[in-house]
Amino acid sequence: MRSAMTDASPFHSTGEVLDWLSSRNAASPFSVEPIPLECVDGWSFEESTGNLVHKSGKFFRVEGIRVETNAGPVARWEQPIIDQPEIGILGIVAKEFDGVLHFLMQAKMEPGNPSPVQLTPTVQATRSNYTQVHQGSRPPYVDYFLDLTRATRLVDQLQFEQASAFLGKRNRNMVVLAAGGVPVLDNFRWLTMGQVKQLLRIPNLVSMEARTVLSCIPLVANGCDSASAPPAPAGEFGRALFESMLECGQAMHGDDEVLSWLADLRCRYELRIERVPLRTVDAWSRDRFAIAHDGGRYFSVVGARVEATSREVARWDQPLVKSVEKGLIGFLIKRIHGVLHFLIQAKVEPGNVDILSVGPTVQCVLGAESVSDPASWPPLADLVVGAPAERVRYSCTQAEEGGRFYHVENEYRVVELPADEDAQLSDGYCWVTLRQLNDLLRHGYVNIEARNLLGCLSLI
Amino acid sequence: MRSAMTDASPFHSTGEVLDWLSSRNAASPFSVEPIPLECVDGWSFEESTGNLVHKSGKFFRVEGIRVETNAGPVARWEQPIIDQPEIGILGIVAKEFDGVLHFLMQAKMEPGNPSPVQLTPTVQATRSNYTQVHQGSRPPYVDYFLDLTRATRLVDQLQFEQASAFLGKRNRNMVVLAAGGVPVLDNFRWLTMGQVKQLLRIPNLVSMEARTVLSCIPLVANGCDSASAPPAPAGEFGRALFESMLECGQAMHGDDEVLSWLADLRCRYELRIERVPLRTVDAWSRDRFAIAHDGGRYFSVVGARVEATSREVARWDQPLVKSVEKGLIGFLIKRIHGVLHFLIQAKVEPGNVDILSVGPTVQCVLGAESVSDPASWPPLADLVVGAPAERVRYSCTQAEEGGRFYHVENEYRVVELPADEDAQLSDGYCWVTLRQLNDLLRHGYVNIEARNLLGCLSLI
Fold first, then answer.
1. How far does Cα B240 stand from its chain's mean position?
2. Within an 8 Å CB–CB cutoff, is residue A443 touching chain B?
3. How far apart are CA B167 and CA B81, in angstroms?
4. Domain encompassing residue A374
5. Residue of A202, A300, A314, B259 with fewest CB within 10 Å of its CB?
6. pLDDT tens-digit map of B280-290
7. Inter-chain residue contact B155 with A224, CB threshold 8 Å
């Protein structure tokens, strides 16, 4: 928490970090050119299925699925999906300097990023990356996450990624406290949590990977022992977050009641996923340059040729997922009996491993809703989009994983409703405190959209 | 907790409950005859796959699976498995009498029970049971679990069943507190928790379904607030359980460390399940009377004709799963820094939805190990089986679900190691307190074998 309250660091001011990221952008010229899918080097369409696969069998595959569910207006559809069963590591190395925890962040270029270089975790490594025999080619710092003698694990959770586009893909989200000295390589900098949170107010600067790891770090170590609680932040919203994290018995619904709400919905909602060959996926077609929806909606899969200097390989081809529309990810929050509550939504998505996950109040990502057409908005979106400025607690555009997604951006928003305003809720929604939401998150219930928005919240 | 400390009830002594169960047994004569599988009424083998299915498509199906894993000595095998995707309800209605919570338990016959009539929850209902349109034929009391105006939900958790025999089967484990009067039908009795726990010391009397629901009721409401803690039980073992449930920060491993242990194993263990036609399952064959393992091990699926009086239908046929050997389910426990810890094991089983679950220290159910041949015992089994009597905290034979399993019995044991005795542990094991184990259980990590043994623990 001390790190979260510190926006100055002995190493660099936040302004200096911004300059550094700009200079990395300037120093890393690169281009992304669309190329025909059949020309994507190393990738091909499987003869029998039309699935898009890499010749090594690694990375990921684009396949088709048939979805059947009773959880929404559409009972049955087919769509392409990305299958990437390997569990990778997203990890940040932390170390205390002058009594304040600092986090080793990396400037890293990804082809799909709107601003090419973003601030990412110390390590992003697939399993194939870090298990390779030849020690020298392993990603730097990865041993801090694998070797318990080099660091203590502060956070170590398996968390799922976009369930609208991935079939059960997850990464191990880790924060480790280094035991000894940590060399600072080129492209790496020590930042306090407060500094990272400041950078999260600038669009598209902090990567999706960083946001999900940050969301796993509780804003305040929770527990009901008020004697050991640290002093509250001075700002009104920071204090409200702090109190919602430390509440004890003041939540609108008890913890068991929240689990009961989820158990009930899991019994009522059905979700059947069947793999089908990509070639036969209904309402989607493939031309030379893209696998796309016949109605021009949702997303498309395209081929890209990347030329860059800041990556291990200076030139490569890869498929990327392009979204048709910008998305919206929003939490409605409200003080209930004086304590800040978050409105969570049970979200049934094809990539969910157990029918549903806990999502933000509003989420339209790679989805059926169009931000430009209010008639198509999902429930409560109007309250998130149309809120007066003094009710908006957070608002920023953030990009999704630039290693898979091409310029996929979401508007992230947190809007506080007046305490006396009642939103009309169906039973797919539930008000919970930040302590409860954090507890659900630790156990893997919370989807990446909700997590990444939570990761943007700051005590200062 | 008051109910758990009360072994006398204003309604019936425990002796009277035993007499009642005996009289139900006497009043419910029934027979179970083996019949050829092809004669099992309503069931047949699917033409194309050889899978055993019911003509209605309901109940369950016996299919084949191919298992590939790196988690044990056998990397690849095939086996029959029961597919029953419907989520049912296992529910107990509770009500306070004279300030003590009582639980409405049912005397119920199942064909596979070693003693035909067992004490079961108030309601055992499949989804088809309780969603049927004709109100009159719904199971009695089921509305207490579905209608929030009739009762408050104290426990409401989705919990998985045997992952060695079922493909992701789970039930909703519920305890509800009735709001008004509750009629007591024939075959039902009010018991205190203390009385049920006493009956759990008698072999094969309390059903699997009752044990799993009981395991979801914390022995003591947990929390670190020592001011509000109830007085400790007088008995030494009861007090040790009580303290392990209320510990706060005295656990050998922090809560996040336990989650990290699980995350690490989930990354290292692989489990791939592929459905295959039952007909082609390797090393298993079907003759007229059974689907059985060629080596005569594990389990078999047989046909049974049941004639009985205490069920809705007086005569019916069904397939049953018969096990070849008795199983062993055991916890090693030990005081660490004065606090009782339980040795949990990460268990990779084919029916697991997320690779592994938290199992007891020792579990050999429908498995490869033979109780009669110590050379085949899994790690630590010798400590559980060979413990001197004064170290055995619980020991009883319990039967598994008699509606699916025919006379499948397990020896349930809890053995306390001396505080200074170190067991040799691989990294698939971890010591946790009862508070931690209960927290894992609430979130669905703990398998039915471990849960059902925990359900047998008593404060008195």
1. 24
2. yes
3. 7
4. 237-271+326-456
5. A314
6. 999 999 999 99
7. no
